[in-house]
Design goal:
Largest sheet: 5 strands, antiparallel
Strand order of the largest sheet: 3-2-1-4-5
InterPro entries: DUF3592
Pfam family, one: DUF3592
Number of helices: 3
Radius of gyration: 25 Å
Number of domains: 2
Keywords: Membrane, Transmembrane, Transmembrane helix
Protein name: DUF3592 domain-containing protein
Shape: elongated
Order of helices and strands: HEEEHEEH
Structural class: alpha+beta
Distance between the termini: 32 Å
Helix content: 40-55%
């Protein structure tokens, strides 16, 4: 049984709207729950107190997608440090260093910079000493989740905003989707 064009048209609009809502929610989560806090931590870390630490683990990690022949790489660095007699371990080199890229040399350079047993200066959050970083500040990869989130949220806003705007205009005019006056139909 073939559905009529108006029914299929409405179904297409509904699908587009629901997909837009999903994009907005996903983009919002990436932007404001992951990306923005990373940027704020990066900026704040420049003023954090420091302590001495030592690198415990340093290796290049390879990540291969199950549906792709390409790999991405990241540096896995773990270091130990102490704040007020309490021992901590952390793996953050800089805020955004956990982003995997196809550029293996970035991960290799980071591993070379922080070999096992190297003494390091650790910048730690005075309110939450378990949050620490070896390189304070904001870097290109710090913005990854923020930009990625907006790349999802932008189209989502268009996919939901345009139909909502059209609906509000129709309601304001008192017309239905075909432009017919709805006043007095009820």
């Amino acid at each position: 049984m073939v559905k009529s064009k108006p029914v299929m048209h409405k179904a297409g609009h509904l699908f587009s709207f629901v997909l837009g809502v999903i994009f907005v929610i996903g983009g919002f989560l990436a932007t404001y729950l992951k990306g923005l806090p990373l940027i704020e931590q990066g900026k704040a870390s420049k003023n954090w107190p420091t302590t001495k630490g030592v690198v415990l683990k340093s290796k290049v990690a390879s990540h291969r997608s199950s549906n792709s022949n390409s790999s991405t790489y990241s540096a896995e660095i773990t270091y130990r440090y102490q704040v007020e007699g309490q021992n901590y371990k952390c793996g953050t080199v800089w805020f955004g260093s956990d982003v995997s890229t196809s550029n293996r040399s970035l991960a290799q350079d980071t591993v070379k910079k922080y070999p096992v047993d190297k003494q390091v200066v650790v910048y730690y959050d005075p309110q939450k000493p378990a949050a620490a970083v070896l390189e304070p500040g904001v870097f290109k990869t710090t913005y990854f989740y923020y930009v990625f989130g907006w790349l999802f949220m932008g189209p989502g806003i268009l996919m939901t905003g345009i139909p909502l705007f059209r609906w509000l205009v129709r309601v304001g005019r008192g017309t239905d989707e075909r432009g017919e006056n709805v006043a007095g139909k009820f």
